[in-house]
Amino acid sequence: MCEDDQKPATTACVDRSFEANGDLREKFGLLRGESCGDIVGSSQSHGGITPAEMCQMALSDFASNLAAGFTLGGAGLSYTPPSGYTYIADLCASTCGSHGIISDSCGGSGLTSVSASVVTTTTIAELRTRIANAPTTGCDYYWGPNGPITYTEEDWTVRCGNPAMIFLGPGTFLLSGSQLDLRSLTNYEIVGHPDGSTLDAQGLSRIFDMAYKSALTLKNVTLINGRAVDGGAIRLLSRFPAGVELTMSTMMQVEASRLTIRGGAIRDCEATNDGGAVAAISESAMFGVDCNMLDVEISGCRAGNRGGAVHVKDMNMNMADMRLRNNSAAAGGALSFLSVPNAQIYRSSFIGHAASGNGGVLTAVGSGRTL
């Protein structure tokens, strides 16, 4: 279960084309540096399968018991655990050990060590090429498993399926005045090296600009010295197609960009308008679209208008285990929420923020709620 998209197929433990004969909506496979909890959390709907069952199934048992184990039941799937299945972790040493994957990646947590067999991206030129060459896989509109508000933190993920995986090498990548443009209908997962991977905009540009209906997951990557009008480090753009009015029947047409950040940091970024670090901007209200941040430090960021660290408009905001320090803005020294349907903030610290106007830490305008 330790294949990654950037290794030749001859050295992969498992062929990524395995999709449970199409019965599963999302591919089942652990990518290098990803834990079982990550893949279960980032999958969409597994019917009656529990995370524990998913993590315990060996791939061989999963395949051999597919016909008996999965049945189509209405729009979803039901699952009957096969008898005698083994833990994936028990297979790692024999099937994946030569590729540097340890058992933690099959049921533990956090990032595993990157071995020499991983194809890493080591220069900014390579990074730009990988981003430019990503396929336009698209992402169907989705809510969380239980509706438009995703309360369970393990579900705070981008659930678009089959992202373009990019594993950064150690060190600092200088952007030299040109931001990284994520095109519409593309989906990326960028994983930082255990020894540290930093993207430095040098105060000359934004770092990531996310077009309508693009998706990005960052894991253990540090972003520094971004500068732009909105979103000094990252800007997300979302909208409804021109001429489409928001109704229950048209909601699925939303062109939402999706962002999840797990680990890492954003430091010393600036927006002359909104969102010193991140600006998630929707052109109209949309429900069930989440922006997720878990275990991230945001420090020393500034906004000339709203949200010294983060500004969100018309999207849900989910945060947990955050460390926000010394950010500033005219309003909302740390956070600015404008017509946000639902915001959740858990186990997070806010230290040393400043606002010349309202909300030294947080400003929230419009309907919605913050937990």
Instruction: Give the low-pLDDT segments.
Output: 1-117
Tell me the number of strands: 29
| Largest sheet descriptor | 8 strands, parallel
Mean pLDDT across all amino acids: 73
- So how many helices? 6
Task: State the separation between the terminal residues, measured CA to CA.
Answer: 37 Å
Strand content: 25-35%
Number of domains: 2
* Class from secondary-structure proportions: mainly beta
Radius of gyration, in angstroms, nearest whole number: 21 Å
Helix content: 10-25%
Give an overview of the whole structure.
The structure is a single chain. Helix content is 11%, strand content 30%. The strands form 5 sheets. The chain has an 8-stranded parallel sheet, covered by helices on one side. It is built from 6 helices and 29 strands. The chain starts with 35 loop residues before the first helix and ends with a strand. By secondary structure, it is mostly beta strands. The chain is globular and about 45 Å long. Strand 1 and strand 2 (76-79) form a beta hairpin. The chain has 2 domains: 9-106, no CATH class; 124-370.
